[in-house]
Design a protein that fits this description.
- The chain folds into 2 domains: 3-277, Rossmann fold; 285-546, Rossmann fold.
- The chain contains 18 helices and 25 strands.
- The strands form 6 sheets. A 9-stranded mixed β-sheet has the order 13-12-14-15-25-24-23-20-21, with helices on both faces. Strands 5-2-6-1-7-10-11 form a 7-stranded parallel β-sheet, with helices on both faces.
- The N and C termini lie far apart (73 Å).
């Protein structure tokens, strides 16, 4: 029978519930347990797909095309589990389903209420995701005491009684602040947070205490006494040099032993040698390179969470410390490309809308003309194609219909029909809703034999995840090919351009999909590893190139 671990947070938000959840999954997997993870989000949006990246951060796309919370990216990076649309739900999606059933008459005229109808739907989804697994870890978004998360906490209380308290435990993550003026660690916020949790019928089994300083035994004893938690289960968790130390940090404090003991699971000790190798490689690089990310959502870097992590993974795999210059695409439009002069490679990520797009085109042009390694992802591929059309093919008014619907030369246009991985034909129109109407999820890309992309991947067919509405217009491909562009990969039916390259350039790759969603610290990703290798090569050549330019 599935065991359940519920992770809640208290005192303040942004304490790292997602990292704790992911790291615990990694340790339990290393104990040879079959683990799945679920994120419950308390906001009313049906999914994060239409939420602003600068408010909510990245939208992570699952293998089956669900637009989900960025924490699911952490889950995949730390564990072997592959997330699907079932692994993330929101208050909005719960109410949507309950209201749909009420309108259908499923409740036979009953008064529909939070208890039992909303809580029953929450429990149904939790159980569904846990089927077939040894352990399901459920992260509850928000902070205990928030009105939005109360139905989730009530559902947890009910479910724990239904399955038995020996098969479900609660981990509560709290802040234990250090007050510098008093020179003391203060436990009162933790006591009040647990009191709030207990007031709704939930007693935490493990407290993970975030603090600037290690918790002394006296503080742990005091917290244990006033929260009714075993002292061994009051865990001190300080900031780490890298998040990939978190699995080891949990193991060192015996958290996994407490979990399997309380849940009555017999399993071997965890072998975290892979994670030790990851940390050792990250903290002991052999070279340094500097790259630019030319973006438009720089107010909140979590908008590029998976991208930043994928670059980190490539640095780990290549033993490289990668310094990132985050460059505002609109700044390039105003001030020119001088900000790119100091970098060894340029990455232009995905995005939506007109703002900053001309700056991204400038970045692609700079990389092409100065032979700087370039990786264009989604919108970055579009920028590269338009640069080539305007500045090499001589199509001066080349554009994307996403920006200018009336452009006479739509190098990039709305994709209206494609075949998904299951062989179904998907259709969209420009009049459709924004939410859930894109080409989404994992689909096959057939790579051209002998292309750089095929060499990087080491195979001819790859599966990557998509999130976009616009594609390269096949009508213009012959003109662009005459100007040096090579189509390196297409969709399985051959209709859609998936990857482009410039064979005469040292390293210039564009991809329509989002490879950052499938990168992990233990394996990296071929495109990002190749990109960082190219940056290292360019860095080694940079002094000679400057001397040539000066002469």
């Amino acid at each position: 029978m599935t065991r359940y671990i519920f992770v809640t947070g208290g005192v303040v938000s942004s304490l790292g519930k997602g990292i704790i959840t992911s790291s615990l999954a990694a340790v339990l997997e290393a104990r040879q347990l079959n683990v799945n993870i679920l994120k419950m989000d308390p906001y009313i949006n049906v999914d994060p797909g239409t939420m602003s990246p600068v408010q909510h951060g990245e939208v992570f796309v699952t293998v089956d095309g669900a637009e989900t919370d960025l924490d699911l990216g952490n889950y995949e990076r730390f564990s072997r589990a592959r997330m699907t649309k079932s692994n993330n739900f929101t208050t909005g999606s719960i109410y949507e389903e309950v209201i749909r059933r009420e309108r259908r008459g499923d409740y036979l005229g009953a008064t529909v209420q939070v208890i039992p109808h909303i809580t029953d739907e929450i429990k149904r989804r939790i159980k569904l995701v846990g089927q077939g697994y040894d352990v399901l870890i459920v992260e509850t978004g928000g902070t205990v005491g928030d009105i939005e998360s109360q139905p989730f906490l009530e559902a947890i209380r009910q479910l724990r009684l239904e399955v038995g308290i020996a098969k479900a435990l609660i981990i509560h993550l709290v802040l234990v602040p250090y007050v510098a003026t008093a020179g003391e660690i203060k436990t009162k916020p933790t006591q009040h947070s647990v009191k709030e949790l207990r007031s709704i019928g939930l007693q935490p089994d493990i407290l993970i205490c975030r603090s600037e300083r290690p918790l002394p035994k006296s503080a742990r004893s005091k917290i244990a006494l006033f929260t009714n938690v075993e002292e061994r289960a009051v865990v001190s968790f300080r900031d780490l040099e890298t998040v990939y130390q978190a699995p080891q940090a949990l193991q060192e404090q015996g958290v996994d032993d407490i979990v399997v003991d309380k849940l009555g699971i017999e399993c071997p000790p965890a072998d975290l040698s892979q994670w030790r190798d990851v940390v050792e490689a990250q903290l002991n690089p052999e070279r340094t390179t500097r790259i630019a990310i030319v973006g438009k959502y720089l107010e909140l870097l979590d908008a590029y969470k998976s991208l930043i992590e994928a670059i980190t993974h490539a640095g780990i795999r290549t033993r490289t410390r990668v310094d990132i210059d985050f460059i505002d695409a609109e700044g390039l439009e105003r001030e020119g490309t001088a900000a790119l002069d100091a970098v060894h490679a340029i990455l232009v990520p995905g995005g939506f809308g007109k703002r900053g797009f001309e700056g991204k085109i400038l970045a692609a042009q700079y990389a092409r003309e100065n032979r700087v390694p370039y990786l264009g992802i989604c919108y970055g591929l579009h920028a590269a194609a338009i640069d080539l059309a305007r500045h090499v093919a001589g199509i001066e008014d080349a554009h994307s219909t996403e920006i200018d619907a009336a452009t006479p030369n739509p190098i990039i246009g709305l994709v209206t029909e494609w075949t998904d991985q299951a062989g179904r034909v998907e259709q969209r129109s420009s009049d459709g809703d924004l939410g859930g109407t894109m080409r989404l999820g994992e689909q096959a890309c057939v790579l051209n034999q002998g292309s750089l992309s095929e060499r990087l991947y080491g195979r001819s067919v790859v599966y990557e995840r998509h999130r976009h509405r616009y594609e390269v217009n096949n009508h213009y491909i012959p003109q662009l090919e005459k100007c040096g562009l090579a189509v390196a990969g297409r969709s399985e039916d051959g209709e859609l351009v998936e990857m482009i390259e410039l064979p005469d350039h040292p390293w210039f790759v564009g991809c329509q999909f989002h490879p950052e969603f499938t990168s992990s610290p233990r394996e990296g990703h071929p495109l990002f590893c190749g990109f960082i290798d190219a940056a290292n090569e360019h860095a080694a050549l940079a002094p000679a190139l400057k001397d040539d330019a000066a002469s």
